[in-house]
Specification:
single chain, 445 residues, Fumarate Reductase Iron-sulfur Protein, Chain B, domain 2, FAD/NAD(P)-binding domain, 3 domains
Length: 445
Amino acid sequence: MSNTPMTPGIAPGRLPETSYADHFSDLHPPLDHHEALVAADRCYFCHDAPCMTACPTSIDIPLFIRQIMTGTPEAAAKTIFDQNILGGMCARVCPTETLCEEVCVREVAEGKPVEIGRLQRYATDTLIADGTHPYTRAASTGKKIAVVGAGPAGLSAAHRLAMLGHDVVIFDARAKTGGLNEYGIASYKAPGGYAQSEIDWLMKIGGITVETGKMLGKDLTLDALKADYDAVFLSIGLAGVNALRADGVEKEGVVDAVDFIAELRQTEDLSTLPIGRNVVVIGGGMTAVDAAVQAKLLGAQNVSMVYRRSRARMSASDYEQDLAASKGVQIFYNAAPVGVFGEGAAQEIEFEYTVEENGRLTNTGETFRLPADQVFKAIGQSLEGVPEGLTLEGGKIAVDAVGRTSLEGVWAGGDCATGGEDLTVTAVAEGRDAAEDIHAKLMES
């Protein structure tokens, strides 16, 4: 984003310098010891707990909460990490309000669930803070596995494979590991360099080598990886950005929301990051919310999110939408972009109202315009650079329930593969399960 010539309405330093630290501090401050005990005491420790069923990684939630109550948060963390080795980050970014907490018996009965996410953070932070790693490697198997992509799925697979005694090499196209945890989520959800500190802790398992700046299709080929390694796990994410079908999208000031978020996450001094006076975000997912809220926190005067369908159809949860509204973001529903207007640079963007009938959108012919010196496109991402021989389904790599692809010896997981929702916690589960299947397959021979 910083390479784009700055338009008159886009400027850095819109806020007093002291405001940035406050605006981008922890969205949900951690529980202290007493608060954790009070929160844990609300759990009913249900038999066949619905929260466990709702968790994509199947963490034994009643058990880890009971362990917190008995004064053993380190044991609680081990319970979490056994199922979700990135449990610390997931405690920060997982949409618990639509997963475990939504089905909590307390939520159903009282409208206020047990704070499972914050309790999970309390436990995992306690263990990570003492610097120990609760896992040891099994005896070496002599097998070597390539993991392409150092996001949540790749890191989860690598840790489980290393723990099982395999040697793992992780390749990633970027300069840092972490994938979306490092580059793609709102800064206020994981401040203080947490993504990298969690990875440093994860790497203490040993047996994992990381090679950054290595892109599949450019620096690596799948054929070479298959020849050099006993198995390959692909977790390459979605590097492409869907095209916006509107006139004028080539104008200055129109950028991809994922690029804005990535630059913000890597900027040490937020007062140097340029932001517009009037920002419009196109899209209705988590990326759109993260971009809109952070634009407002950087000092944009007016920030609008515009989504082509209804509120009920937005993939961002009600909680996330309400968060955006609480930060001053105006949300427009049932409006599709028509064109960006301005002399070389964005000044306005026009939308046309839509109606939905039988699942199909129809334009009404009624239009409106919003001032916009900066437009963020957050309309979804797509798969790029897929090696030949892999079967695709719905624009993603087709996999079975344990991540096997159409190519022998190649597994895949995370956003690049078919399976569950595009969530960190789902990616972790897919990486874990693929690792277990890779291990079982390799040990057959």
